[in-house]
Amino acid sequence: MQSANILLTVSTTLGTGNEKCEDDLMSPTPGDYMAVAARELRETSSTKEQALNIMREWIQKNHDIRNVRQDDNFLLRFLRYKKYSIPMAQQTLLKYLSLRKYYPECFTNLDYEEPNVAEILNSGYIVVSPVRDNKGRRVIVYNISKFNANKFTCWDMCRVHIVVYESLLDDPVDQIMGFTHVGEGTGVTAAHVTAWNPSDFGRMLKWGEQSLPMRQKDFHLVNIPPALKYIIDFAVSKVSTKMAQRLNIHTNLKQLHKNLNVACLPTSYGGPLQLQDMISYTRQLLSYQKKKLLALDDMEILSTRGITSSRNRPIIKDGTVSIEGSFRKLDID
Description:
Layout: H1 2-11, H2 30-41, H3 45-61, E1 65-66, H4 72-81, H5 86-102, H6 104-107, H7 115-123, E2 126-128, E3 138-143, H8 154-168, H9 172-177, E4 179-184, H10 190-194, H11 198-211, E5 216-222, H12 226-238, H13 241-244, E6 247-250, H14 253-259, H15 275-295, E7 300-301, E8 316-317, E9 320-321
Parallel strand pairs: 3-4, 4-5, 5-6
Antiparallel strand pairs: 1-7, 2-3, 8-9
């Protein structure tokens, strides 16, 4: 009953795809999140205006990129992510465009209605909670057992993640408050693990952290089988120390609930929300952003010479990213 009441409240604020999606439940007030922007990101109206002007001028004069969005929301993703260090924001933007170019199977045609993407979304593998955590952060919930690893590839999985992430990144509240991710390991099979090879998996983790302008604040994992811990250790080795320290592994749901607001969780995690309602909410969010996501394909990077360091960039052979190694030696109980 609580889930129905929550989604009834949310549905009154969601558009049909042609209107703007308004605030979700427990969303911080403008005063709250602007206070966080000032305290954590050094953002003021003056610095924001000046930084936006500098970013636009740099884009317009940069012959290595083409058709890059110059609206406030897009540029603020990078400025806020790098706490208004303009050189670092520019580098992140270049790396973002480079990542999109090197992994087109993940970053182009981000249509939530494309058959594979739609089927994965409808399964409930990844959903956005209509309730934020008690720190005002957007909560993204993963149900790995819902992902059909015998039918879909790692690139299908990655693409669905990017569709969701890109759909949220224009929200100023999300840009400022950041994201909390929650995943559960029950139902993981060998097919889930062997869908990825170490080279691509590690590369996506490392370059994703450096290129996607998301303030990743917390990762909560629960009920992780022993074989999956190897993958987690590998993932931790590929990200920054700061990011690794934000990973929280819980042995059971009771421990998870001590660290995360239960109200933002589905029933499978011991929360009040029905998964189907969360799927519907997620699809409405994605519907509103569909045109913007498809238009991202207009942006181009013509040369990566402006990126400060190109070490460990994906290797291109015959126009495709090279693939090396596998996780096939792992045993899944």
